[in-house]
Amino acid sequence: MPIASFLEEYDFSGKTIIPFCSHGGGRFGQGLTAIGKLVPDAVMGEALSVHYSGGSSMPADVSEWLKVNGIIE
Fold it and tell me: pTM value?
């Protein structure tokens, strides 16, 4: 609930939220839907879900995720 409390406390209108998580198999579950409901006036970027340590592809996966979201070129 800390993330929900944070999202409820601030105005994210017109802001871009780019979710990420690490997990053991559950991925985001209903997390992305919940974020969308808590900040309906925000833009939701492409989310990144990393299983456990991310494996050997994690550096490339994170770089691609940052590119897709316009954080790096």
Answer: 0.78
